[in-house]
Design goal:
Strand content: 25-35%
CATH architecture of the largest domain: 2-Layer Sandwich
CATH class of the largest domain: Alpha Beta
Order of helices and strands: EHEHEHEHEHEHEHEEEEEEEHHE
CATH superfamily of the largest domain: Dihydrodipicolinate Reductase, domain 2
Number of domains: 2
Length: 334
């Protein structure tokens, strides 16, 4: 393996152009090829980045020995076929979320990567962001005490997707964040979900999902394409203190709230000692994604967002889909 990982990018659209820029800027990678059915778009994307080969067909690009690994930024329905073909050609793979359209496909990708000692990683970008990394550090420090509940709200008016519902579009962010910040204590046991469709879309556009963990922590997630305002807020209630992360706040995105409740005899006692705002690293998360992917390809280490974690997220989304139909609470298999 060379010092730099040679990257082939599949898809140069909205998210692909961001991946391209960050892989070009990453000191551990060199972008050697891009693939897009719209070759004219691909040409415009790479014009500032030097000598990069353009392909209209993924199969042909995968035959290129000058590609060590691929990054997939295409519609969800295509993720499995592209990623599996790449793994079978001996290429390491980074896939945009969600990693596949169903749990069976996701586990097949994990098995294929494992059998061939290849890195399989999902682009759960928020796990690489400064606020989320700081939140994990705060939880690990014990400042909040034991986590009791987590509430996440991720809403806006649109964008309506053409191939997945709002949970598949937005909840991977929330689920990956929860898995990352809770670490070993994240062990889902059951899920339930309710949702509403818009008359002009076949997919659920507003949904509430509830996840129960083995340690009795409850996670509530609200995702919506039907909200009048854009909200990106995450609240953690601990036995000692609380934390609020407002990702849209221009300043002080993460606040530790020195608030709590205790019982003194028969009386509830409430305390409020103000807030503190920890410092946040504002390095672009996608650059950290590129660095982690390349590092794992070069060393064989496990990434922050490995394939098996991405597969479990797909399992939870599948169960949530079933809940939307049956209104039942369903168990998550280990």
């Amino acid at each position: 393996m060379t010092e730099r990982v040679k990257i082939g990018l599949v898809g140069t659209g909205y998210w692909g152009k961001n991946l391209l820029r960050n892989f070009v800027n990453c000191t551990l990678t060199t972008v050697t090829a891009v693939c897009d059915a719209n070759t004219e778009l691909a040409k415009t994307r790479i014009e500032d980045y030097g000598d990069i080969e353009i392909y209209a067909d993924v199969t042909t690009m995968l035959e290129n020995a000058n590609v060590d690994a691929i990054a997939v930024a295409t519609p969800v329905r295509t993720h499995f076929d592209i990623a599996m073909a790449a793994l079978r050609c001996g290429k390491h793979v980074l896939v945009e979320k969600p990693i596949a359209l169903n749990y069976e496909q996701a586990t097949q990708l994990v098995a294929e990567a494992s059998n061939n000692n290849l890195t399989l990683m999902c682009d759960h970008t928020f796990c690489y962001s400064g606020p989320v990394r700081r939140i994990r550090q705060v939880i690990e420090s014990g400042i909040l005490g034991d986590v009791v509940t987590i509430n996440s709200t991720r809403t806006n008016l649109g964008l309506f997707q053409k191939d997945v519902n709002v949970l598949w579009d937005l909840a991977p962010h929330d689920l990956s964040i929860c898995e990352y910040i809770l670490g070993d204590s994240y062990s889902p046991v059951s899920v339930r979900a309710t949702g509403t469709k818009h008359p002009h879309s076949p997919f659920v556009a507003d949904a509430h999902m509830h996840l129960s963990l083995e340690n009795n922590v409850n996670i509530a997630i609200h995702n919506s394409w039907l909200a009048p305002t854009k909200t990106r807020q995450f609240t953690i209630v601990g036995t000692k203190k609380m934390l609020v992360w407002d990702d849209l706040s221009p300043n002080d995105k993460v606040k530790i709230c020195h608030k709590n409740m205790r019982k003194d005899g028969e009386v509830f006692v409430y305390t409020d000692d103000g807030t503190t705002c920890p410092s946040i690293d504002m390095t672009e998360p996608l650059l950290e994604v590129a660095n982690d992917f390349a590092r794992c390809v070069l060393t064989g280490d496990s990434p922050v967002a490995p394939g098996h974690t991405a597969a479990q997220i797909v399992q939870i989304l599948e169960l949530a889909d079933e809940c939307l139909v049956t209104s039942e609470t369903l168990e998550v298999s280990s």
